[in-house]
Q: What sequence folds into this?
């Protein structure tokens, strides 16, 4: 190499060195500029981290004694990472027939071509229990021993198969108290929500608050997963054992009486706590998607709060209580029943179309005389009658804490659809519509010294490790204490003197039957189709339960005294054991001894 060439190379080296120094200086200048810092921070936020949405664990639901009615269980989603699949045929063979999966559908998913942009992962199945995953993992390991890394195409391999745990709503009692609980649509995963009952009414409380957080895209930069507080857990007033007993007896009664459906409510009139609430049909909440098969479009999920109907003679309890309370009648009042009563352009007849002659007010209730109650209501006057009915909450929501409560407005004087004859017919529960919890709540005022308590199923909320108990609420006080006790005593005597099928040996029970004729399409009433019911409470000295029974369209008999009253007796004979209520003679003995 000559001297001239050396000089040329030296010059090029110097120029390149100077350019490198300039580039380095420029880089240092850029890195220290405010604009670079801004862009660098933005890139760090947008490309190094992603916003992840974490959903809290849904709160549990317990009965009043802490027995689990709704909770969560671990399940798994199973899928394939397409980049690592070695033998899609093996995967299709393993899942063929599981939860109705078909071989060629699984094969189509597992054999998809990997694409880093559009095709990375394919889900095969979801909601597999841990036991199935254990078996799947064992099979995976067995294949790995025979065919490490899945390199041998002629041998089976589950390479690429992955599974991820998550929570699923679980109802350990299946269909028990399903009408009360409602359900959570867990198949929706992130879009799930509560439907009906407790799951709907307290959906926000149970669900908790989802949390958005920045998560590093590089898993090695992840120090710990964020802690998302679980949703609140609920303790209900429902007693699991009483609920199970009631559902069993209701199902048997509906079947034996060839009825369309039935409803039973048991509540504590002192607090408004609902101890049991059962209706038909019911579904296995773990298979909530069968709802559409069990319920017609117009059919309420819980008839105890969502079905509106004419109650019939059980309504007479409210009419007579109101008349006693405002002084229209008293225990000595005599009504000479002629068997018919003309009023407002209509004629009122008794249930058997006969007259009963001279009757006290107890006799009017004992024989369930429509004519007598119509006379009582007209003597009271329309203003006083409807004021009392509104005080009892008729025509208004109870606001029970369950999704799906429906009501029918109470037509009163001055409304365009009200006619004078309605004062007479409303007195015995015809031409007025209620739902079961509405009427049970109204009559509970008679059982609770005149105070009407708000019905509810929530006993306590558990959140952040603390329990918050709910307090009973008074809805109204429609009756004086003396009136309530007088009515209770009157209805105890009424049942005893007629030797009612509702009687419970050893216990003094107040109660009233109901038979409501169902109007045909042309507006006529007859005994071909009826709603039969019974409402009762006790013990007389200190009522601690009220039971309301409604059986729809029984074929065995159209009368509440024959169909509903024996169901009441059967339920209460078990109920007093669950509630540990001693017979009357024991209580009387304790009183005599000064205890």
A:
């Amino acid at each position: 190499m000559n001297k001239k060439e050396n000089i040329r190379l030296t010059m090029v080296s110097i120029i390149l060195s100077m350019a490198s120094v300039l580039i380095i200086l420029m880089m240092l200048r850029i890195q220290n500029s405010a604009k670079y810092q801004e862009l660098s921070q933005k890139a760090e936020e947008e490309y190094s981290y992603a916003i992840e949405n974490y959903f809290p664990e849904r709160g549990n639901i317990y009965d009043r004694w802490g027995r689990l009615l709704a909770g969560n269980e671990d399940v798994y989603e199973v899928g394939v990472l397409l980049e690592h699949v070695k033998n899609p045929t093996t995967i299709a063979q393993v899942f063929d027939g599981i939860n109705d999966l078909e071989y060629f559908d699984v094969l189509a998913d597992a054999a998809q071509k990997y694409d880093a942009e559009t095709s990375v992962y394919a889900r095969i199945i979801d909601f597999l229990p841990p036991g199935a995953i254990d078996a799947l993992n064992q099979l995976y390991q067995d294949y790995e021993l025979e065919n490490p890394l899945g390199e041998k195409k002629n041998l089976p391999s589950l390479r690429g198969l992955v599974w991820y745990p998550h929570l699923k709503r679980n109802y350990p009692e299946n269909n028990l108290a399903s009408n009360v609980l409602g359900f959570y649509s867990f198949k929706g995963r992130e879009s799930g929500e509560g439907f009906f009952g407790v799951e709907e009414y307290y959906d926000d409380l149970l669900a908790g608050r989802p949390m958005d957080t920045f998560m590093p895209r590089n898993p090695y930069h992840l120090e710990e997963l964020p802690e998302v507080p679980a949703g609140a857990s609920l303790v209900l007033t429902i007693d699991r054992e009483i609920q199970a007993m009631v559902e069993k007896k209701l199902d048997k009664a509906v079947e034996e009486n060839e009825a369309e459906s039935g409803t039973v409510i048991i509540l504590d009139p002192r607090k408004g706590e609902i101890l049991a609430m059962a209706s038909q049909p019911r579904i296995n909440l773990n298979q909530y998607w069968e709802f559409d098969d069990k319920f017609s479009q117009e059919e309420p999920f819980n008839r105890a709060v969502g079905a509106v109907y004419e109650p019939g003679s059980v309504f007479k309890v409210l009419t007579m209580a109101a008349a006693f309370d405002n002084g229209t009648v008293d225990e000595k009042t005599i009504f000479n029943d002629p068997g018919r009563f003309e009023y407002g352009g209509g004629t009122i007849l008794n249930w058997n179309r006969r007259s009963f002659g001279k009757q006290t007010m107890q006799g009017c209730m004992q024989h369930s005389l429509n004519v007598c109650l119509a006379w009582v209501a007209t003597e009271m006057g329309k203003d006083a009658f409807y004021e009392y009915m509104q005080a009892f909450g008729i025509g208004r929501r109870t606001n029970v804490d369950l999704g799906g409560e429906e009501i029918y407005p109470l037509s009163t004087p001055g409304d365009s659809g009200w006619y004078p004859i309605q004062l007479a017919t409303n007195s015995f529960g015809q031409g007025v519509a209620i739902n079961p919890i509405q009427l049970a709540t109204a009559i509970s005022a008679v059982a609770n010294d005149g105070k009407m308590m708000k019905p509810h199923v929530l006993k306590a909320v558990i959140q952040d490790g603390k329990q918050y108990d709910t307090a009973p609420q008074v809805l109204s006080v429609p009756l004086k204490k003396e009136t309530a006790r007088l009515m209770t005593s009157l209805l105890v005597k009424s049942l005893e003197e007629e030797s009612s099928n509702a009687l419970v040996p050893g216990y003094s029970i107040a109660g009233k039957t109901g038979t409501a004729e169902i109007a045909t399409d042309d507006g006529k009433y007859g005994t071909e189709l009826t709603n039969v019911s019974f409402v009762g409470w006790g013990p007389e000295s200190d009522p601690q339960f009220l039971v309301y029974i409604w059986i729809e369209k029984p074929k065995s008999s159209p009368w509440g005294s024959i169909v509903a009253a024996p169901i009441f007796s059967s339920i209460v004979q078990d109920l007093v054991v669950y509630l540990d209520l001693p017979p009357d003679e024991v209580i009387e003995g304790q009183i005599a001894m000064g205890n």
Summary: Confidence is low (pLDDT under 50) at residues 215-222. The radius of gyration is 36 Å. The first helix runs from residue 3 to 31.
